[in-house]
Design a protein that fits this description.
binds magnesium ion; 8 strands; alpha/beta; Rossmann fold; binds guanosine-5'-diphosphate; 241 residues; eight-stranded mixed β-sheet; 8 helices
């Protein structure tokens, strides 16, 4: 892997991309991450932009810029992550190509809704082709199975999801398959965050910030993929030093 690029502040930058069909929950996952970061450490959210059309579908991309490991001695973060979501609608393939260019970590959002099975398949197939066409074979990824809050009869059974990963060639890329698929519900995470904000008993530290120990479990699951791929990108960097 090439060395990390640095921004104008000389802080190393990692580019992560949420990939997946339209309406899978990419914008919602990124928004949850942004809200959590804002509650825990508002200075670590540099920018957050979402571009939706009137039907709430992502038009070009969403992007959040977040800092990690602020060092008071230097006044800088140790790392910044630029996290994008691609527009999922079929016709936006060129935008997906542009947004994905130079990606260093992928978070693949699958929609567990039965009706979205075919869209998941198309999204997985297209991404596999991108990875083949560009030099993205070493890019770490996590597969999210979102909307687990829905009743089981509305969701694609786990066996069919596994089959889908086999059909689209993803199971071959997954060595430790189990640890790379994360089941989650952005809806539960959102509701728990809203509940936390409404309750008067938010456990805060002396600076009035939400403590990391207070992260609701559903929120932990939604942000886990971001943490996993970031860790992998950094581990790969260290291995090259
Ligand atoms: N039931 C349920 N709905 C969800 C969940 N995550 C997202 N949604 C809904 O799915 C729709 C699309 O979400 P969005 O984040 O805009 O998807 P994107 O197109 O992938 O960016 C919205 O109406 C969300 O409220 C979830 O975990 N459970
Ligand atoms: Mg979106």
């Amino acid at each position: 892997m090439e060395h990390l690029k640095k921004d104008f502040d000389e802080v190393p930058v990692v580019k992560l991309v949420f990939w997946g069909a339209s309406m899978a929950g990419k914008t919602m996952a990124l928004t949850i991450f942004k809200v959590l970061k804002t509650l825990e450490d508002p200075d670590s959210v540099y920018s957050f932009l979402t571009l939706e059309d009137p039907t709430k579908r992502t038009l070009f991309f969403d992007r959040g810029v977040f800092g990690f490991g602020y060092n008071p001695l230097t006044g800088k973060d140790r790392l910044k992550a630029h996290i994008y979501t691609v527009p999922g609608q079929l016709r936006h393939i060129t935008q997906r190509e542009v947004v994905t260019s130079g990606v260093q970590g992928l978070i693949i959002m699958l929609d567990s809704t039965k009706a979205q099975y075919e869209h998941n398949r198309i999204a997985l197939t297209e991404l596999a082709q991108f990875i083949e066409s560009y030099a993205y074979k070493e890019v770490p990824f996590v597969i999210c199975l979102n909307k687990m809050d829905l009743p089981a009869e509305q969701r694609t059974p786990a066996s069919e999801i596994s089959e889908l990963l086999v059909q689209t060639g993803w199971s071959e890329r997954i060595r430790d398959a189990h640890s790379r698929v994360v089941e989650m519900s952005c809806m539960d995470a959102k509701n728990e965050l809203v509940g936390l904000l409404k309750s008067n008993a938010i456990p805060k530290d002396d600076d009035g910030r939400l403590k990391k120990e207070s992260r609701p479990d559903s929120v932990k699951r939604v942000i886990m993929p971001i943490e996993m791929v970031l860790r992998e990108v950094l581990t790969a960097q260290l291995a090259h030093m």
